[in-house]
Amino acid sequence: MRLDDRDIEILRVLTREGRITKAALAERIGLSPTPCWDRLRKLEKAGLIEGYGARINLRKLAPHVTVFVAVEIADHTAASFRAFEDAMERYDEVVSCWALGGGFDYILQIVTRDIDAYQRLIDAMLDARIGLSRYFTYVVTKPVKGGGGAPFDILLSES
Fold it and tell me: Is 136 in contact with 68 (CB distance < 8 Å)?
């Protein structure tokens, strides 16, 4: 799908303000509501917009800890990778999981109530025999930057 400047601006605005009204979005990008809404539906239908959600301030919600975990799996077969990835879907505390190229096989973002709950989760993963052979824990001490969306201008530049 070929995007023009207005499509990119729609994506940029929605990334920061997912609850913006259609009228306000249209005004922000310099279109009347109907053409703006048509563009938005086109972006959704093309799969560029996967969904809408709220960014929740977890610090105000409940005590928690965020942990990044670098993971190595035991076997590097397609079936082992599939089994591990399928298993990640079953753990609600695993909020993100990325397959990596390089030294580690995966990086997980895990949110639990505390470090003890994190360790119980890791122990359960090890007991479940999902292929986890080694893991390295990195506890987040404070958020610095996140949730700002993709740098569309950089990603779509010709240079």
Answer: no
Higher pLDDT, 148 or 12: 12
Residue 18 lies in domain: 5-54
Of 100, 88, 74, 80, the C-alpha closest to 124 is 88
pTM (global) more than 0.90: no
Q: What is the pLDDT of residue 150?
A: 77
* Residue 21, in any domain of the structure: yes
Burial of 83 (0-12, 13-18, 19+ CB in 10 A): middle
Q: Residue 109 belongs to a domain with what CATH number?
A: 3.30.70.920
Average pLDDT for residues 94-109, to the nearest whole number? 96
What CA–CA distance (Å, rounded) separates 80 from 82? 5
Maximum Cα interatomic distance, the chain, rounded to a whole number of Å: 57
Do 74 and 135 reside in the same domain of the chain?
Answer: yes
Tell me: the pLDDT tens digits for 119-129?
Answer: 999 999 999 99
